[in-house]
Write a structure and sequence with these properties.
InterPro entries: CobQ/CobB/MinD/ParA_Nub-bd_dom, DNA_Partitioning_ATPase, P-loop_NTPase. It comes from Magnetococcus marinus (strain ATCC BAA-1437 / JCM 17883 / MC-1). Pfam families: CbiA. This is Plasmid segregation oscillating ATPase ParF. Helices cover 47% and strands 17% of the residues. The protein has 236 residues and is of the alpha/beta class. It has one domain: P-loop containing nucleotide triphosphate hydrolases (Rossmann fold, 3-Layer(aba) Sandwich). The chain has a seven-stranded parallel beta sheet with strand order 3-2-4-1-5-6-7, sandwiched between helices. Helix 1 packs across helix 2. The longest helix is centred in the middle third of the chain and has 17 residues. The radius of gyration is 17 Å and the shape is globular. The two termini are 32 Å apart. The structure holds adenosine-5'-diphosphate and magnesium ion. Adenosine-5'-diphosphate (ADP) binds next to helix 1, strand 6 and helix 7. The site of magnesium ion has 7 residues, from helix 1.
């Protein structure tokens, strides 16, 4: 299945979510390939850190110079995750037209709701001639964790008003674990499997991959001996 992780504004968490999903799938022994179609190349950068730190499992990340259509065909049976950014609109449209679903992280602000609306218009245009249009799944990312702040609820309400989309009943909070794990080339649940950040991320995986999420404890890869497992036990 091809899942595009997209939105127009930078900083909404596209690369973060793509990276975490890719590792989660790989740890369940799923064949997963990830595309970094954003010239900002955050996904490639974080994977470089992961490689330097001997992160296991390793991820395969394709860059725009590989022919996406060809790789999509070669990996038709695999889980394909595509991180797209607005600085390469051509690649973004191509990926959207090939996808079965579009996952849209939305930070809690009016500006992000506006840019999400623009992104959804682009999705409509890009899939006008597609026989089976992709599912469009929105969720609030970087939600306020302070109970007194209402922006996340308001954003959620605004997303529910948008036509032809599903708003996922899960929310990922603004958690320092995302920044910390990213800088070490790790997924949040590799940093610590029992944290609010991990729980929220697992809620997202349950909605996206219900058939895998329930089974995660059985199929999970054993951690590799050495540097990375030491790091996990130190921080976890
Ligand atoms: N839920 C979150 N909590 C805390 N920080 C986050 C969260 N999601 C993303 N970030 C951070 O926000 C920044 C931008 O995220 P990134 O995934 O690069 O966004 P995008 O790919 O949409 O431009 C990164 O520093 C990332 O670690
Ligand atoms: Mg990015």
């Amino acid at each position: 299945m091809i899942t595009v992780i997209g939105n127009l504004k930078g900083g909404c968490g596209k690369s973060t979510i793509t990276f975490n999903l890719a590792i989660w799938l790989a740890r369940l022994n799923q064949r997963v390939v990830a595309f970094d179609l954003d010239p900002q190349a955050t996904l490639s950068d974080v994977n470089e850190v992961r490689r330097e730190e001997s992160g296991d499992p390793e991820l395969t990340i394709y860059r725009p110079d590989s022919d996406p259509g060809k790789v999509f065909r070669e990996h038709a049976e695999d889980e394909i995750l595509v991180d797209v950014g607005a600085s390469n609109l051509w690649a973004m449209r191509q990926a959207i037209a090939s996808a079965q679903r579009i996952l849209v992280p939305v930070p809690p602000s009016q500006a992000d709701v506006w840019s999400t609306q623009r992104f959804l218009n682009m999705v409509k245009e890009a899939t006008m001639r597609v026989e089976v249009p992709p599912q469009v799944l929105l969720f609030v990312n970087r939600a306020d964790t302070h109970p007194g702040l209402k922006e996340s609820d308001e954003t959620d309400e605004a997303l529910h008003m948008l036509p032809d989309v599903q708003v996922l009943p899960c929310r990922i909070g603004q958690r320092t674990a995302y920044r910390r794990s990213f800088s070490e080339g790790l997924a949040v649940f590799e940093l610590s499997e029992r944290s609010k950040a991990s729980d929220e991320f697992f809620s997202l995986t349950k909605l996206l991959y219900p058939e895998l999420a329930g089974d995660s404890s059985k199929k999970k890869k054993a951690p590799k001996e050495g540097k990375k497992s030491a790091k996990i036990s130190k921080t976890g």
